[in-house]
Structure prediction request, 332 residues.
Amino acid sequence: MSVTDPLGGTERDSLAGERRRSVNRMSDGKQVSPGVREEIRAFLATRRARLTPEQAGLTVFGGARRVKGLRREEVAALAGISVEYYIRLERGDATGVSESVLDGIHHALQLTDAERAHLSDLLDARRSRRPAPPAARPRLRPPVQRILDSMTTTAALVFTGCLDIIGANALGRALYQPMYADPVRPVNTARFAFLDPAARTFWRDWDRIADDSAELLRAEAGRTPYDTELTTLIGELSTRSEDFRVRWARHDVRSYATGVKRVHHPVVGDFELAYESTRLADPGQILIMYTPEPDTPSEDALRMLASWAASKPGADQPHPAGDPHATGPEPG
Prediction:
């Protein structure tokens, strides 16, 4: 039986699992998790495979190529490093990886900024001697909740890197009402996207939302590879969702930015909301704010949603700061 490893590998039996959970001694005297090493290998290999020589500006001579995408020696030449060093890097064995080497790999593999940051995070995790101690569950500070509650015409929510919702204003809770129907707390947008059938109706562009969710979790796994809650979530999604497994295997990453969410809400129907994101002072917490274009049906729909949320019993009662909203509004 094969069990999915949250960092990309597989454990074929319990003995192999113990080997993967062990810590290997590297040539520089430091220690690195085999899972992190495998993640470096898989990430760089998948970036090579997606890029053709023509896309990289290389001239190809001879017949058919046996390698999909770029060869290691081609990446090394484009990056301005030796083939031997690049091979060690892709195996997770290279030491002393400088910013100039990262810049070379960034150029050679045409990485996005999010992908470059992910590779840097993985190399930082590789260099660490031991896993960091488990972090306390993120909680929202009272001033942040007061700021959220002061926003009356904007849907606003605070997310963690695991895609947990740990804070929201009334309009944000009303917007994501279908997610609050799940009794599991805190509400998690990736769990909703991949495990709740209602997500495919709620998200009018579900495929893009699913891609984004997997890519955000992959980036978070690079930043915090020893986070037990993240590992548990990825294991659950990998076990229960083929759609997640397919996306997880791509090793694609992204970061929070800006965009448009297209929603079919069970109360007010279809609308579109532009969103902006900003990182809070508390590590790993991200504020996302959703607003419609002025003078559009979406603005009318959001006003209707705000009126509906305000009419629900208890809507005027504040939620304790840091409480991940144990209950949410029900359709009426």
In short: Residues 1-32, 315-332 have pLDDT under 50 and may be disordered. The first strand starts at residue 3 and ends at 4. Residues 206-223 form the longest helix (18 residues).
